[in-house]
Design goal:
The protein is of the alpha+beta class. It has a single domain, classed as Ctag/Cox11 (Ctag/Cox11 (Pfam 04442), Sandwich), CATH 2.60.370.10. The protein is 23% helix and 38% strand. The protein has two helices and ten strands. The chain has helices at residues 2-38, 177-181, and strands at 45-46, 59-68, 74-78, 82-86, 91-99, 105-114, 122-127, 133-135, 140-149, 164-173. Strands 1-7-9-5-3 form a five-stranded mixed β-sheet. The radius of gyration is 22 Å and the shape is flat. 21% of the residues are buried.
């Protein structure tokens, strides 16, 4: 009798452990999905097309920032440091990346919006940060970002004082496919 109770306790403890490990493993992709869908934590929303609203006469200054993770031998810079856009206007910005290494390298970009409270109003239609970028040795590529700033930003009492938004991108070296399939280390 006593052995059955201990076995049940052991099975329950193992089941709880498996569920907790599963929740930890799923938390990063779920949090990323939540951030992209809502603009939480400075992450712009990804949309398939412009809102269809008429562009506003009101303008916003958009600044661009680019950096590379230490150890990734790439040069990465915005094609423009800032631009003035009309709210609701679909806009194209470009970034240039160059692989200074003697071997092919694959990078993945993360992005952020500041001030954070502006993030829900920055909608990306297309962005290099949604895919891995493989650069051959010495290769230079131009990478586009298509976005718009939702005109509702001007009507929100929390954001109607914003006149400048910064879009920041950081490139990280992507893990090799073998490392990805083995799971986190």
């Amino acid at each position: 009798m006593r052995g059955n109770g201990q076995r049940r306790t052991l099975v329950l403890a193992i089941a709880i452990l498996v569920v907790m490990v599963g929740m930890v493993a799923a938390s990063v992709p779920l949090y990323s999905l939540l951030c992209r869908a809502t603009g939480l934590s400075g992450t712009p929303r990804r949309v398939m097309a412009a809102s269809g609203e008429q562009a506003s006469a009101k303008t916003m200054t958009i600044r661009f920032d680019a950096s590379v993770m230490r150890g990734l031998p790439w040069k990465f810079a915005p094609g423009q440091t800032k631009m003035t856009v009309h709210l609701g206007e679909t806009t194209l910005a470009t970034f240039t990346a160059h692989n200074s290494a003697s071997t092919p390298l694959t990078g993945t970009a993360s992005f952020n919006v500041t001030p954070l409270k502006a993030a829900p109003y920055v909608d990306k239609i297309a962005c290099f940060c949604f895919t891995e970028q493989k650069l051959e040795p010495g290769q230079t590529v131009d990478m586009p970002v298509t976005f718009y700033v939702d005109p509702k930003i001007a009507d929100d009492p929390e954001t109607n004082d914003i006149d400048t938004i910064t879009l920041s991108y950081t490139f990280f070296q992507a893990r090799p496919p073998a490392a990805r399939s083995e799971g986190p280390s």
